Amino acid sequence: MSLSVAHAECVRQSDGTWRCLPAEQRAQPTAMDIRVECPTSRGSGTSVARSASGGTLIITNHHVIDGQQRVLVHAGNGGSAPATVVAIDRANDLALLSVRAEWPYVKLGCEVSIGTPVQFRAFDAGVTFRKYFGQVANRYHGAGSGGFFATGASRSGNSGGGVYSQGRLVGVVWGNPSGGTALVPIGPVRALVERYQRSGIRENSNQPQRRLVTKPSSSDEGGDRVCDCDERLARIEQQLKELTHSQPSLPSPAPRVVTPEGDWLKLAAAALGVSTPLGVAIVAAGFLVRVRRTRRRGLGGPRTETFHHQPHQQHRNH
């Protein structure tokens, strides 16, 4: 519940008392408050860290940028830059963007608890900056692992905006169920940023980016990287077939040269750009999986796996 008294924003404490926070005459965005603009979607974000290449990392919701071909971000101080999606956490609806510009970034706070007063900073319709206040009221499982519901109504375009307590980022706005604000807590945000930084991937505007896809924050395992190895193996297999057919016919049978499996695997791994022992093992595993699938369903046959669909959550801000 939110109350305005003498131009101050007040929130009700768990003990029934009211705590009033200083209010600005007109809220102004800072350089850390980010507008996210896509061809068919707009949202909000927050700059949270420095990238390995010296640029800036920005956190927002995955549903803000999902399926978009281009992402442009605007800092609250007026700077603008094209952004690259470098990591995603679908389970918690988070996306990490990277820009080459060096923008200021916020400090990450601690996990909030029920009853904590919070401040929201986001852009209505992804355009007009708004700061509003609320209080963490309950758990909300729709906003990822350990999500919260807070008082204070979010609006369209607020998705991805920052949630603050004591001047530090403690969450990300996710949606507006029941007229309040659902938020993703800081834990998954911190985990996504740290996993990406540990990956050592350096952004290069001249090369396509490989997104780091993480598991849910409740998992102790590291992230899984999107890989096109299966397609590469298919291309290598086709090239080998074409090479075989292009060889001239010999006048007499010649002894067949047998390449040891280890050498074949090393050659395939080198072609994939993963010539380390781990890379060779990955190629071998991929080849065995392909053989097993072919034997199970027949070459080119339909898949027999059963896919379980998870119901899509509603009430998200776009």
UniProtKB/TrEMBL annotation:
Domain of life, per lineage: Bacteria
Keyword terms: Hydrolase, Membrane, Protease, Transmembrane, Transmembrane helix
GO BP term (any one): proteolysis
Transmembrane segments: 264-289
Single annotated GO MF: serine-type endopeptidase activity
UniProt-listed Pfam families: Trypsin_2
Chain intervals with Basic residues compositional bias: 309-318
Annotated Polar residues bias: 202-220
Region (Disordered): 200-226, 298-318
InterPro entries reported in the protein's UniProt record: Peptidase_S1_PA (IPR009003), Peptidase_S1C (IPR001940)
PANTHER family: PROTEASE DO-LIKE 5, CHLOROPLASTIC, SERINE ENDOPROTEASE DEGS
Protein name: Serine protease
Taxonomic classification: Bacteria, Pseudomonadati, Planctomycetota, Planctomycetia, Pirellulales
